[in-house]
Amino acid sequence: MIILPPLPYPSDALAPVLSEVTLRLHHGKHHKAYVDKANALRAEANLPAAPVEQLIETVAMAPDRRLFNNLAQAWNHAFYWNCMSPRPVPPNPRLASAIGAAFAGPDGLRAAFIDEGVRHFGSGWVWLAAQDGRLILFSTHDADTVIGRNLTPLLVCDVWEHAYYLDHQNDRAAYLGLWWDRLANWDFAGRQFDAEAAGTGAWTYPHDTEAYVAPIHGTGAFEHALEEAGMLLALQPAPGSERGRRFDALLHRIAEYAPSAPPVGQAGRVSADLDRRIRAAAARRRAGRDDEDHHWSPLVGGDLRRHG
Ligand code: FE2
Question: In the Cβ-directed half-sphere of 30, how many Cα atoms lie within 13 Å?
Answer without folding.
Answer: 23
